[in-house]
Amino acid sequence: MAPDTSTPPRRRGRPPKDRNAPDAPRARLIRAGVAILTEKGFSAVGIDEILTAAGVPKGSFYHYFASKNAFGLALIDAYDRYFLAKLDRWFDDDSIAAPLDRLRAFTVDARDGMARHGYRRGCLVGNLGQEMGTLPEDYRERLVDVLHRWQARTARCLREARDAGEIDPSADCDRLAEFFWIGWEGAVLRAKLERGPAPLDRFAEHFLSSLTT
Hints:
This protein has a domain at 73-212: Orthogonal Bundle (Tetracycline Repressor, domain 2). Helices cover 65% and strands 0% of the residues. By secondary structure, it is mainly α.
């Protein structure tokens, strides 16, 4: 017998709300958590602070997350999605003809993002990486996977630059992308420490100039 593909009758009452919609409590908790953890350490932040920042009633947290550790993993995934979208926006921007200029534009955008918050906020992945001694071991694998994805996007941009003749045709773009993220994360940390853009600008300038020397 053929399956019944007719639309079931609509039930009375409110429609189910998407728990990931921008105004949903779970989404607000994640946004607040990312904002706070880019500024503070995971171990130093309490659930109450995040609930207050998100405007979510106390006692609701464990309805959305099994534990604080599960919440932390959700924050990593959310930040990864946000950052991959940022990288794609710049690296795939055809209005910027030269691939190295796309990489340069990304560094300027990231610097400006830190400036908007007075250089108090850094990179969530970098911040958590510094706390690995006190975090669950499964965070390590998740954070390394995130960095590998960011490196892959960057290596693709560098390969386009190599194909366009901007950098040495023998350049190892995967290694260069790895070096970029090792250095960039350090520059973000230093900029947060100094509350200024100089470390970001110096690293970006040196990295980009070294490719074309």
